[in-house]
Structure formats: C-alpha cells, structure tokens
Fold this sequence. Notes:
Blueprint: H1 2-13, E1 17-30, E2 45-51, E3 59-80, E4 86-94, E5 98-102, E6 106-110, E7 113-123, E8 128-142, E9 154-160, E10 162-170, E11 177-199, H2 205-227
Antiparallel strand pairs: 1-11, 2-9, 3-8, 3-11, 4-7, 4-10, 5-6, 5-9
Helix pairs in contact: 1-2
Amino acid sequence: xxxxxxTALLLAxxxxxxxxxxxxxxxxxxxxxxSVIDTTxxxxxxxxxxxxxxxxxxxxxxGVDIKVFAQIDSTGHSTNTSGLAGQSQYNFLLTSDWDVTSxxxxxxxxxxxxxxxxxxxxxxxxxxxxxxxxTSFQQGTLTASDISMFLNDVDFTFNVTAASSFINVTSGGSxxxxxxxxxxxxxxxxxxxxxxxxVTSVPEPTSLAILGLGLAxxxxxxxxxxxx
Length: 228
C-alpha cells in the first residue's frame, strides 16, 4: 500500500499543464509618420528605440517575430528670382545605406544612392517649382536566431545619412533662386512574442482518484494492523 500512496502523490504533484500558445505584442517608434519637420534628417540621423523584454512570469518563450518599418518624407520648392528662365532639379541622395541595426539582426531598407529626383525643364521667371511631398515607405523582417536575447530589453537603431539639394541653371547670366527643403524620417519596430502559458498546478481527476485509492488502502492497512 505504501507504493500505491507514493505513486499517487507523484502523479498529483506532476499535474502542471500548459494552456496553449499565446502571443503578446510590443512596439517602439520614433518620429511622426508623414511629417517633414518632426525628426529631421539633416546630414544624418541615428535614432534608437527599445523593445521591452519578454516577461518570463507569463510562461515559456517559444518564438519571436520582428517587423521593422521606416519612412522618409521630403518637401521643397524653388523660386526663380533671376531675370531669365532656367531649369531646376531636386535630388535627395542617400550617402549611406538606410538601415536598422540591433544585437539580434539588421535590415537594409534602401541601398545608398538616389532616393528622390524631380525636374522642371522650363522654370520661368518668378515661377515657383513645387514638387509637393515625396514619400518612401519601406518594411522588412528580422530573424532572431537566439530568442533568449529577448529576455532582456533589445535596442534597435535606425540609420540614414543623406544630402538633398536643388540644382538651378539659367540660359545666361547669374542663376538666382530661392530654395526651401524639409525632410524627416520615421521608424517603428513591432515584436510579437509567442509563449506557452503555464497554468497553476492542479491535481488531475485521474491523479485524485489514484490518490484517494492510495489513502483508502493506507487507512485499511492501519485498521488491519490494529485488529491483529
């Protein structure tokens, strides 16, 4: 009977279960999407955002899905104040790769090179060449080869260096133009944690039945000994 009791107690104690796969999302961002003045690029931008660590009290982390998003917006206009008609061209050049880096992985949104270009081949005297707002939206995914890194906070840094300018020429004489340019960037990281939700240990019905049988047998054994 002692063996039956021991087995029953072990079964009752090992009844910890998992409720199933559950997800929780975290996100971090900088700037205002679509703004040309909030987080200006200038000659270079390096913005770091932090994704909060997975809360191990929730359960066992089984997977991490990482999505990254970035956007550059640029506006500008050029006014021909020369006495002659001319031509104007706007160029927005990435002087390095536009990317996001972290201790987990990195992603290149766009290689270095020309991102935007607008041209006015007949820029009349006193005319305003306004190309409106130019937008480049990019997105990608990162791979976490070691998901345990997300048991701590993880930093993601968005990087872009650029040069934007107007090229103004006239058919003769001096080229006098008034140029205005505004450019800014925005970025976001979205992380989805997948985990097994641990349920508080509760004896299973089968374990309880065996435990009851063991206790009954133990009581019967003691009663038999007293009778003898």
